[in-house]
């Protein structure tokens, strides 16, 4: 699953998760709030859609990336995400 927000071609934030993951749901709320307030594009991808992502990150979801670099896993710290995007 890929969800692009704000119509931007290259999202600054990528959230890796999977359906039914309560930590992913929590992370999505934080990512949505911060990116909306800062006007930053983001997308969500499911590790279930890509065998390599599943192999690499299944035990760490949700995983967030900012500007292509791994930022956080399991929990998204709102202040830390804001700082990374600032």
Automatic annotation (TrEMBL):
Gene3D superfamilies in the cross-refs: Glutaredoxin
Top-level division of the source organism's lineage: Bacteria
A Pfam entry, by short name: Glrx-like
InterPro entries: Glutaredoxin-like (IPR008554), Glutaredoxin-like_YDR286C (IPR052565), Thioredoxin-like_sf (IPR036249)
Protein's name in the database: Glutaredoxin
Organism: Terrabacter aeriphilus
């Amino acid at each position: 699953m890929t969800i692009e927000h704000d119509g931007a071609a290259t999202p600054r934030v990528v959230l890796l998760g999977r359906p039914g993951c309560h930590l992913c749901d929590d992370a999505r709320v934080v990512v949505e709030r911060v990116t909306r307030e800062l006007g930053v594009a983001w997308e969500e991808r499911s590790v279930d859609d890509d065998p390599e992502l599943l192999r690499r990150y299944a035990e760490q979801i949700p995983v967030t990336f900012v500007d292509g670099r791994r930022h956080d896993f399991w929990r998204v710290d709102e202040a830390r995400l804001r700082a990374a995007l600032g």
